[in-house]
Amino acid sequence: MYHSLTETRHPLQPEEQEVGIDPLSSYSNKSGGKNGKNYL
Predict the structure, then answer these.
(1) Contact (Cβ atoms closer than 8 angstroms) between residue 29 and residue 36
(2) Residue 27 to residue 35: CA distance in whole angstroms
């Protein structure tokens, strides 16, 4: 059972890593998104 959960989380890990490159953009997007667009 534990293995299944880890496998489902695996695909989400790579996506999170990509966002990690832009911590500012990710934070703005989570805050509301308006700031993220302004930053871009």
Answers:
(1) yes
(2) 9
Its pTM stands at: 0.16
Express each pLDDT in 1-26 by its tens digit.
555 555 555 555 555 555 555 666 65
| Dihedral sign, Cα of residue 19, residue 20, residue 25, residue 31 | positive
H helix runs in the chain, sequence order: 2-9, 12-20, 23-31, 34-39
Question: What distance in Å separates the CA atoms of residue 33 and residue 37, rounded to the nearest whole number?
Answer: 6
Alpha-carbon distances of 40 from 1, 19, 23, 28, rounded to whole Å: 42, 14, 13, 10
Residues 7/11/12/14 CA torsion (nearest 10 deg): 130
